[in-house]
Specification:
- The protein is of the alpha+beta class.
- It has one domain: Nucleoside Triphosphate Pyrophosphohydrolase.
- It is built from five helices and eleven strands, in the order αββββαββββαβββαα.
- It has helices spanning 3-13, 76-88, 140-144, 175-188, 192-198, and strands at residues 29-40, 43-50, 62-63, 66-68, 95-100, 104-105, 110-119, 134-139, 150-156, 159-168, 171-174.
- The chain is globular.
- The protein starts with a helix and ends with a helix.
- Pfam families: NUDIX.
- It comes from Shewanella dokdonensis.
- Its cofactor is Mn(2+); Mg(2+).
Length: 199
Amino acid sequence: MDLTELRWRFELGVAAPLSQPQGTPPRLRNAAVLLAFQAGSNGVELLLTQRPRHLKAHPGQVSFPGGKQEPQDRNLLETALREAHEEIGLAPANVELLGTLPQHHTITGFNITPVVGIVQQPFTARLNPGEVSAMFTVPLTFLLQQNNRHVMLVQRRQQSHPVTFIPYGDRLIWGATAAIIDTFCDIIGCDVQRITKRR
């Protein structure tokens, strides 16, 4: 799959339009993340970051560039682009926005809007050491293989929650990041004839 095919598969199967999502459930804070895809040596690749271990929240975890919506952000699309620029030096003008995925509610109190985009030109990453310890890529072909994505029930506060895990090399992608990847793969991995008939 190349970037062109990714683009039209997403457009055929997308569950949400390129727009500001409406409404936030009570007691949840708005946030946005950027699923940034680029052409690489392994075909289409997804950019991911790893959080520094000194952070109080989610230390060492794999994540997307992204964060909380700030007052200066006109919408959540702008939040995702701003955070990607601040965290890894990806210029907003260098991202072709394709659309958004369904909002993802976390047990830590966030309403996350995943924004999908394509990096148009190669760029030199500038990592913000306060937020990112490393940036790496994962081939989309790896993520699309269902047997690489695992869901397990995890106990938290006497309740069971489904948690997605994606082992990749010496890293473990899990939680909201893995769940959002799983949703994306379900959308673009659908049979094209079935998507067309549904429309």
